[in-house]
Records
---
Amino acid sequence: MKPRRAGARRATQQRTPWLILPLAAVAVAYVAVPFVALLQRAPWSGLGGLLGRSIVVDALRLSITTAFAATGLAMLLGIPLAWVLARTRFPGRSVARALVLLPMVLPPVVGGAALLFAFGRRGLLGGPVYDATGFLLPFSIWGVVAANTFVAMPFLVLTVESGLRAADTRYEDAAATLGAGRWTIFRRITVPHAGPSIIAGAVLCWARALGEFGATVTFAGNLQGRTQTMPLAVFLALESDRDAAIALSLVLIAVSLAVILPLRDRWLTV
Amino acid sequence: MLHAAIGVQLGDFRLDIALDVGDGEVVALLGPNGAGKTTALRAIAGLQPLDDGRIELDGVVLDDPAADVFVPTAERPIGVVFQDYLLFPRLSALDNIAFGLRARGQDKASARSRAQRWLERFDLAEQAHAKPRTLSGGQAQRVALARALATDPRLLLLDEPLAALDAGTRVQVRAELRRHLATFHGARLLITHDPMDALVLADRLVIVEQGRVTQTGIPADVTARPASRYVAQLVGINLVHGTASGEHTVRLESGAELTVADPLPGPEVALAIRPQAIALHGHQPDGSPRNTWSATVTDLEADHDRVRVTLGGPVAATAEVTPAAVAELGLAPGTTVWATVKAVDLTAYER
């Protein structure tokens, strides 16, 4: 037999179709080039001053607070919903599932408009509540949280539902034979076993909430310090103060990486 | 005392069996995979509601669809050792055992101290804080057993408790399980597809095939008179009882002595002899090897290409030979033959 080079042997073992590599390289470049362009335009010397400006600090604080609040709310409502979708059968279940996932495919602006008609001053639910209590959801920090939750919750529901479907329900049977009631089983067995999918879903949900733009600007407006989140501030600054926009973008990238990187292999493999 | 008449319809499969287990009794539900054994266990535990029938434990009705009675799983005084044990992977051995006590309302401190005593009783004190995946098969089984017993059930169900173990540890863990089962005084129902588990662990066998009971009785009766070809193949194993008279020798009630290759596990033993391992001869074999005895043929039963020969004499056993051997030896009821079995073909179990 003719001796072959080691490189040829490795190539044979991998069997990568030749077209795959250049296409994959283009995909990486397509994502990487915009970031490089952004970094190359960054005003590195004046960055400290830009980041200390109140418009940046306010938007960052608001974005992070509302993203966490929306994730918490989405977990409170979304985990039980995922359980119902994964574990029970009722007429109209597939309709309910499609409805809950709708905000994922809907243009967020449409979602924001729909929220206004529901919770606005003259909205279906917002009207009576305003008349009775004077409380108004839109154009407040609560409006930002509501818009974020509306758009980001489906990511959590979808991830947790698939986690619950994959879980071995015999552990729940075992807990029942030990005297555990339904709530104890849910709390001590079901939720911990779905832990990886809950964390993955929460991360996706948080990331989606952090980047939310369309529904927020429609439903909550763009008031600095009250409803102006990072994406809104970036969009606004692009018109007037390009350096500030780039600085804001860099902060968003840094915050996103800080959350995604530690979790990337362990939890984001759903 | 468990009285169960179990009727469950699962698609095309119909399970229809009656089952009684007395206090202090170990009953084995034995049958091939897919016979409905696990469905029966799930019905008794309340994980599978009955379609018809009735389940009663110590005079309390647990499930009776006709009377619209159904006690939920969590409220039944039943402990279950599941197949693969199903220890909660995120909890330590101690917390696995304490789980049932906590679920039944004990505070954390007293649940843990009771769980600690169960660990000590089952030689698991050093594994208290170990996670299930770090435990050996035998240790995991003991944790599962302690977890099931810690809530003080009236009935213990065991679903294939030895199936998760490799052949090497199986014999030892089976003997341990036998010892630990003896400490529980309620009713015990063991589910297994392995005749050896059933014969060693159970006082009574209930054979299930395709959702129905095909035979029931004490192991000696079932092994001596299998009701079907399946049962014959499954449990056609001779069991003879005796006492140790040496490290490797067992004295039977008839006075005959048999030699075993491995050291005996205890003073009182049961010897398992496969019918195929007993060789029959027309004359006393040359050099008279150990484990040779003279026997009288009491019965012959043809079973396809084999003949089961029932032997009377010092060792009551059934041998399985070919029709050619029957002709050659001229076997008929009343014929005297010499029987031999090798020491390595005898397996001894502690009684």
Note: Chain A has a mean pLDDT of 84.
---
Amino acid sequence: MRAQSALLLIAAIAVAEVWPVTSPTAQARARPVTVDDLMALATINDVEIAPAGDRVAYTVSTPALETNTHDTRLFVLPIGGGTPTRLAADVRVFLPALPAPRVRWSPDGAAISSLGMDNGRPQVFAVSPAGGPAWVVTAAPEGVSGYEWSPDGTKLAFLAREPASPPTVANRAGSLPPATRLWVQDADAAATARALTSTDRFVDSLSWKPGGDEIAYSSSPTSGFMARPIPRASTPSPATGAPRDRSSIARA
Amino acid sequence: MNVQPQYSPDGGSISFVSTGGRAELLALADWR
């Protein structure tokens, strides 16, 4: 319920920024929605409530036609409402193609983290909820695709692709990209990361056990999508229950 | 794959999204 209230609050703020309350005069100038109107829409991508439940961190993204990117901004807001504070304004927040939450609070609530571009690669960065300069925590050569704080806040586990050697043949059919491995490092920005999985597996998600002594992760020997033909008369499987192979048009 | 494993608060179970057996869900104990 608390999460729903936070979402409604943030959604109301975002809508108010984009569509202010209209006066009768403005209603008289009603016109069809244009592409420019759609491009001005702000989208909330991430919402994370602080461990103490008193604040909520979130990101807002708007398309930037000039650069063909999304301009994503990080904010923090008291859970009861108020004025949002923008954080890490000098960081280009990384917005994955697949919507997935990347904003996290450190377990003690002293830092908000997300993925931001550093030297052209997405890395974990952190910033105090009170504001101030952000700092880059990870230094993965190929960038970070996902991460989680350890329950005691002293470590970060993250997913990063193995550095690729220069290809001798471009787009060789059937070749696999470098593996995505599970790494762990101290939360200290100067720490060195240690790989926990092998170079022949693709890890795509992880979770810390509450005690911090175990990490669950999913992995596969392949990566990417593989198209499959489907019968013309086939019908989709229900979202739950035993999967039926013929409904699978891709695997990841 | 988007398996998205998630431990329960007491650590006694893990929820995940099934991919129909295309991915493995593993637990790495004693990772230190």
Note: The two ends of chain B are 26 Å apart (CA to CA).
